[in-house]
């Protein structure tokens, strides 16, 4: 399967009680002054959703979780993932937007928001959200991949693209993605700096 098609389905899923995806170990904390019973019930529902066999059941449970405690960002994020996979893009975008507002330093909801609009065919909107994710974490690999993929599909490049592709190559572990990035780097640099291949700051 073509790499660019295969990877479009990858999403950043977060744990019921915190964020533990894509190699990150940070957590979304819940302020201690919030009602502990509501928090506990929301986490229980989110965990049940994570373990549910049927997507419809998982969606319903995540909705119950965020109704019990709106500030549970992982539940909003994972609800968005399920909705995106069902091509309910507007509902998914709303869920990811809420998650990103509740967890203002986490790049994953914004990455997923970008992926939602990419799947829907709105590349400029996708790129805007990938950029926002990278503003939160400039080394977040899924957002680097997404931003570069969106730009290449649109046929555009900038100084940011050069920085992104170099950063992505410096940490890429997936062989297929590495091959794609290595192919794109000289094309991006030529597009940005000219056909003579002048690449300021390059190796």
Structure, described:
- By secondary structure, this protein is mainly α.
- The protein has one domain: Tetratricopeptide repeat domain (Serine Threonine Protein Phosphatase 5, Tetratricopeptide repeat, Alpha Horseshoe).
- Helices cover 66% and strands 0% of the residues.
- The chain is elongated.
Give descriptors for this structure.
203 residues; mainly alpha; Serine Threonine Protein Phosphatase 5, Tetratricopeptide repeat
Strand tally, please? 0
CATH topology: Serine Threonine Protein Phosphatase 5, Tetratricopeptide repeat
Q: What form results from the Cα inertia axes?
A: elongated
Q: Number of domains in the coordinates?
A: 1
Uncertain regions spanning at least 5 consecutive residues: 1-9, 16-33, 199-203
CA radius of gyration is: 18 Å
Q: Give me the strand/helix succession.
A: HHHHHHHHHH
Kindly state the mean pLDDT as a whole number? Answer: 83
Number of helices: 10
